[in-house]
């Protein structure tokens, strides 16, 4: 269960004066929503924070959309962003981040497993000069075999690959500076790699233990297929971190190696033909020469162009990875666009 009393920050030196946006991606969480929004508001009001709650409905089909619209019309601290269909957690979080008005953005899940009472602790840590503070579910209330062990392996692997060591990459409860989020573009399942992407931008990152509760309502949205998608995105993050500003170092080394090997084998075959008069047209080695040389050229060409075209498609044209159907509610705490 969530904390029965909201955390009250009594340290005057640590009380933030920043405006805060709490971003919550939602997919089929109609039973959890009223409890979650009340818990968030209680914590924010108890600490006298200037805040808004931004809920992003990612194509829910269980009545969450109608409930969000009703709550947004009744409350003056809630905005509900309804996406056209189910895009996934990363696009839903991107929609929330891009529509958040606060100087600090807090993200958390809608299933009541993250505790809003930990938000002040994140903000206190952020006041020490950090750009991103990540939660660590030190005492997780999940199934050991289906969630805990795979998560530990994933965290170890991600830390090794990205060189950003955290205990819990998968914890959605995080605090960000809004200017940091403005520099980060999310695709695929990259929301869990935000600390690694932030590190590329030179962010100062910290991690603190947070509470974790067993799921009270509904079912988990995570499946085995998500693991494979995360692994593929991990390769993307590794490439971005290592070769973003020098992509030819990735494709060039291997391409050069393959073309060099193909050239040497080609010279060998040519010497057999020219100096020894041997026939080389029926030799499999000739086919290998052609394959190595062409594959090397392709590594220089298609791979590099494909990566650059993908980034151009999403970034240069400003094309989003989601579409908003409607927005309900306004926040009395923030100036709204005309």
Q: Helix tally?
A: 10
Over the alpha carbons, how many angstroms does the gyration radius reach?
A: 25 Å
Low-confidence stretches: none
What is the CATH homology-level superfamily of the largest domain? Answer: Spore Coat Polysaccharide Biosynthesis Protein SpsA, Chain A
Characterize the main sheet: 8 strands, mixed
How does the helix and strand content classify structurally? alpha/beta
Binned strand content: 5-15%
H and E order: EHEHEHEHEHEHHEHHHE
What's the number of extended β-strand segments?
8
CATH architecture assignment of the largest domain:
Alpha-Beta Complex
CATH class of the largest domain: Alpha Beta
Total discrete domains: 2
Strand order of the largest sheet: 7-5-6-4-1-2-3-8
General form: elongated
Portion of residues in helices?
40-55%
Terminal residue distance: 40 Å
Secondary-structure blueprint:
Layout: E1 19-26, H1 33-46, E2 50-57, H2 64-74, E3 78-83, H3 89-99, E4 104-107, H4 119-126, E5 132-137, H5 144-162, E6 174-177, H6 178-181, H7 194-200, E7 205-210, H8 224-243, H9 248-275, H10 284-316, E8 324-328
Structural notes for this entry:
This protein is α/β, with parallel strands linked by helices and 338 residues long. It has two domains: 12-223, Spore Coat Polysaccharide Biosynthesis Protein SpsA, Chain A (Alpha-Beta Complex), CATH 3.90.550.10; 248-316. It is built from ten helices and eight strands. It has helices at residues 33-46, 64-74, 89-99, 119-126, 144-162, 178-181, 194-200, 224-243, 248-275, 284-316, and strands at residues 19-26, 50-57, 78-83, 104-107, 132-137, 174-177, 205-210, 324-328. It has an eight-stranded mixed beta sheet with strand order 7-5-6-4-1-2-3-8, sandwiched between helices. Helix 9 packs antiparallel against helix 10 (284-316). 36% of the residues are buried.
């Amino acid at each position: 269960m969530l904390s029965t009393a909201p955390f009250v920050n009594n340290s005057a030196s640590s009380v933030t004066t920043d405006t805060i946006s709490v971003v919550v991606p939602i997919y089929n969480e109609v039973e959890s929503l009223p409890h979650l929004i009340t818990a968030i508001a209680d914590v924010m009001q108890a600490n006298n924070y200037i805040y808004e709650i931004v809920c992003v409905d990612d194509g829910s089909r269980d009545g969450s959309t109608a409930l969000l619209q009703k709550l947004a019309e009744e409350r003056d601290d809630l905005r509900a962003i309804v996406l056209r269909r189910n895009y996934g957690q990363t696009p839903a979080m991107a929609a929330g981040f891009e529509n958040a008005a606060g100087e600090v953005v807090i993200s958390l899940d809608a299933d009541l497993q993250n505790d809003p009472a930990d938000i002040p602790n994140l903000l206190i840590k952020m006041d020490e000069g950090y750009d991103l503070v990540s939660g660590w579910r030190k005492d997780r209330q999940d199934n050991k075999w289906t969630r805990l062990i795979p998560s530990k392996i994933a965290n170890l692997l991600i830390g090794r690959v990205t060189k950003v060591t955290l205990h819990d990459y998968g914890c959605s409860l995080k605090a960000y500076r809004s200017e940091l989020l403005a520099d980060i573009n999310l695709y695929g399942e990259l929301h869990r790699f935000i600390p690694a992407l932030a590190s590329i931008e030179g962010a100062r990152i910290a991690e603190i233990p947070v509470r974790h509760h067993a799921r009270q309502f509904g079912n988990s949205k995570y499946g085995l297929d998500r693991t494979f998608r995360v692994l593929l995105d991990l390769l993307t993050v590794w490439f971005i971190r290592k070769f973003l500003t020098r992509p030819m170092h990735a494709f060039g080394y291997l391409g050069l190696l393959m073309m060099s090997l193909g050239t040497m084998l080609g010279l060998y075959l040519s010497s057999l033909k020219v100096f020894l008069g041997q026939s080389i047209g029926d030799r499999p080695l000739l086919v290998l020469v052609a394959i190595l040389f062409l594959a090397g050229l392709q590594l220089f060409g298609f791979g590099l162009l494909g990566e650059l075209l993908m980034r151009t498609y999403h970034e240069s044209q400003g094309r989003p990875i989601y579409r908003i159907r409607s927005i309900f509610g306004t926040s009395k705490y923030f100036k709204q666009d005309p």
